[in-house]
Amino acid sequence: MSGFERYFADPEFVSRYVEQGPAAFMPGHAGVLQMAGVLIAEAAPADGAVLVVGAGGGLDTRALAQMEPGWRFVGVDPSWKMLELARVVIGDEVSARLELIEGTVTDAPEGPFDAATLILVLGMIPDDGSKLRLLREIRRRLRSGAPFVLVDRCDDRQGPDFRRNIDRYAAFARASGVAAETVAGAYESQKANPGLVPAERNEALLVEAGFIDAELFYRGMEWRGWVAYA
Ligand SMILES: C[S@@+](CC[C@H](N)C(=O)[O-])C[C@H]1O[C@@H](n2cnc3c(N)ncnc32)[C@H](O)[C@@H]1O
Description:
Elements: H1 3-8, H2 11-20, H3 22-25, H4 29-43, E1 49-53, H5 59-67, E2 72-77, H6 80-90, E3 98-102, E4 115-119, H7 130-139, E5 147-153, H8 162-175, H9 180-192, H10 199-208, E6 212-220, E7 223-229
Parallel strand pairs: 1-2, 1-4, 2-3, 4-5
Antiparallel strand pairs: 5-7, 6-7
Helix pairs in contact: 4-5, 8-9
Bound molecules: S-adenosylmethionine.
């Protein structure tokens, strides 16, 4: 066993990601994934196909798979390391209804899918047309009326509260027990993140990409979650 595979076979490494990854940075992460499942179940069939964009790490797929044993999943992520971690986190019991693809949304099958998620991904994508292209590619893979769950951290870099908000982001992670050097690195990445946009921008992009009836179902500090429909 070599390189990262060794880490992914190490239960301590995997549990550190599960407990100190997104769950330690985003308030109420487990509840958000549970709400995502509830919102998808409202509009998708019990044997529906779910497209998980940015499926690396596996937390979103694992939570949804536990909620509905009939859902089938296609997950895409450009990072094979994150996909390997996803395989471990999601677990063997889901493998029969899971396909993981190394790549971006354009490498996903055409569908149509009955639901899609984009959780903690859009904020990493620059707003130079790339965010819109990603949302459009998801939208065109969904059947009409299918739910789409978008979750991300948003902020206005030019706004008066930008510094306060990013200090809170770091303070929350520290309070979750994340190591100081990890928090410091995340703080600098967020501060310089070219993909960070205000919440209103995400709402405008959803409309431009063709989604309708977007509803904000979650806000925790500057983190937001929307459900919208194709
Ligand atoms: C913070 S992780 C979130 C993973 C997972 N959705 C979750 O909530 O636990 C962000 C993931 O997005 C992936 N990613 C980055 N750019 C992407 C893109 N253009 N399309 C799909 N996934 C992307 C990264 O490789 C990484 O695995």
